[in-house]
Design goal:
By secondary structure, the chain is an all-alpha fold. Helix content is about 70%, strand content about 0%.
């Protein structure tokens, strides 16, 4: 799907995107994602800023690296969720949302192992890191299911093919 254009997106793939954007799962994921973004911003601007000033040099370096990983994860999640919301609200064609540029990215940063001195990090940051990692992985899973592992473009629908077999058998 790397050089996919809107015209090449199958109707079934676009329907998967449209259905997800209208789902309760999307509502819950969107709500959780946006709340985590707000909570993280408040923490990093308030309590986290105060906590980081109390860290050793190694701890401060770890804090800087992990807070960047945290914000990168959340930016990727928020961007993906906002594309899905644009589909839901009719501001974006679901076929356009299937394009590779709207996939979850920054995997190398978001999934990298934590740096040294993580044990020195404030508990508030560690909790946000864990929550953001779980949310990022869940969105990655949704992204893969919708855009990479989704319905096969030319595969027959399993229920319809069984019905056709039954009809053919009883028609004799």
């Amino acid at each position: 799907m790397s050089d996919l254009s809107v015209a090449e997106v199958s109707p079934s793939r676009a329907e998967v995107v449209r259905d997800f954007a209208r789902s309760e799962l999307f509502d819950r994921t969107f709500q959780e994602g946006m709340e985590l973004v707000e909570e993280t911003a408040a923490y990093l601007d308030g309590e986290g800023r105060r906590d980081s000033k109390l860290l050793s040099r190694g701890g401060a370096l770890a804090y800087a690296g992990e807070s960047m990983r945290l914000t990168t994860r959340l930016m990727q999640v928020a961007s993906w969720l906002l594309v899905q919301r644009a589909v839901r609200e009719g501001d974006m064609d679901p076929r356009e949302a299937c394009l590779p540029r709207y996939r979850v990215g920054a995997k190398a940063v978001c999934r990298a192992e934590s740096v040294e001195h993580v044990e020195d990090l404030p508990e508030g940051l560690l909790i946000l890191l864990e929550r953001s990692e779980r949310l990022y992985e869940r969105v990655m899973h949704l992204d893969r299911r919708m855009f990479l592992d989704g319905p096969a473009e030319d595969a027959p629908h399993p229920v319809l093919s069984q019905l056709e077999r039954l009809q053919a058998a009883f028609a004799r």
